Amino acid sequence: MPDVTQKKLRRATVIYWMLLTYIVAALVWWFISLERQALQMHEFKTLELKATIDSAISPELYRNEILKVEKEYAVEKAKYIGEGSVFLLLIVIGSVFVYRSINRQLKFHQQQQNFMMAVTHELKTPISIARLNLETLQKYNLDPEKQKKLIRTTLEETSRLNFLTNNILISSQLEGGGYTFSKEEIDLSRLTKDCMQAFRDRFPDRIFLENIEAEIDFKADALLIQILINNIVENAIKYSPKEKPITASLKNESNRILLEIKDEGEGIPDEEKKKVFTKFYRIGNEATRRRQGTGLGLYLCSIIARDHNADISVTNNTPSGSNFAVIFHKRTGR
Q1: Do residue 155 and residue 254 come from a single domain?
Q2: Nearest to 299 by CA among 121, 168, 176, 198
Q3: 285 by DSSP, 3-state: which?
Q4: Is the backbone peptide bond immediately before 269 cis, with ω within 30 degrees of 0?
Q5: How far apart are CA 91 and CA 21, in angstroms?
Q6: 108 and 127 part of one domain
Q7: Distance (Å, rounded) from C-alpha 76 to C-alpha 72?
Q8: The domain that contains 124 carries what CATH number?
């Protein structure tokens, strides 16, 4: 977080706690003042009774009047204690709510800033590489093998650029309700195989394994399901070593279809397994993070899964890594 933002946050926090301390102190002072006032009135009425009623002559009358005074004092005390307790409770609840809301907004704002910086970097990198490769092809008469290598690298970077822009556009449209679903019967097996083959073409040095049952049909939006699969596989590529395989499996069960993408990377800590599907959330510290990313991919997967009557989750893989599972429910009700 930039120093200016940190200073603003510290200043706002100090002001907030000063105001809260002042309000609580004022409430306590109000309680003490009322207690003193009620006690003084109680003592005054007691002295007045002693001056107007002779307890030796009319003991019964004096006792009844004293009881009335004591009762008035008890009622008055209970009244301001109750009011003070309610005010204090409301202040505590309100302050906790405001503090948590502000913290969430500041955190979300910081995540948005990190997202903008990440997107800027993610957009500039493939554009710069593609431009450099094309300029090299234009200036130099390279042998066919080197030309193929530069063209393949350029295509990889443009695919990466297309993948990123699709994530941003589709995410925005799904959130704003501007996306038009075109759910139709698709061959989920063929779609998954095509996605994995595309990754083999893009990353020839990676190992991609499949365990996909044939001819699994499902009513869905083909583009969104393709984006879902691509995002999970991209995540596996990003967080697992090159020499470790990435496995895609698809099973047709009695009342559901199970899609799993497994990697053998570092894995995800248990406390972060649910957070990874939050918008802009990325694992690790922003200052020390080495891997690129925008924090949109898995969030987009969760939206797509929800819109297709599916559940998405992540568990530990064996012996290491992560297992992302998407369960498509065949029934309309769940």
Answers
A1: no
A2: 168
A3: coil
A4: no
A5: 11
A6: no
A7: 6
A8: 1.10.287
**Is 334 part of a structural domain of the chain?**
no
Judge if 215 and 310 occupy the same domain: yes
pLDDT tens digits for range 271-309: 888 888 887 776 655 443 455 666 778 888 999 999 898
Q: What is the pTM of this model?
A: 0.61
Cβ atoms of 221 and 182 closer than 8 Å = yes
Token pair belonging to 91: 């202040």
Domain end among 113, 142, 167: 113
Closest CA relative to residue 6, chosen from 106, 104, 117: 106
- 66-111 pLDDT, tens digit each: 788 788 878 888 887 888 788 888 888 888 888 788 777 776 776 6
Specify the residue for token string 């297309």.
162
Residue 63 lies in a domain: yes
User: Structure tokens of 24?
Assistant: 């609580």
Interior/surface letters 171-199, b for 16+ CB within 10 angstroms, e for the rest? beebeeeebeeeeeebebbebbbebbebb
Query: Rounded to whole angstroms, how far apart are CA atoms 205 and 241?
Result: 11
To 5 degrees, how large is the angle CA 169–CA 175–CA 176? 85
Tokens 């309700």, residue located: 177
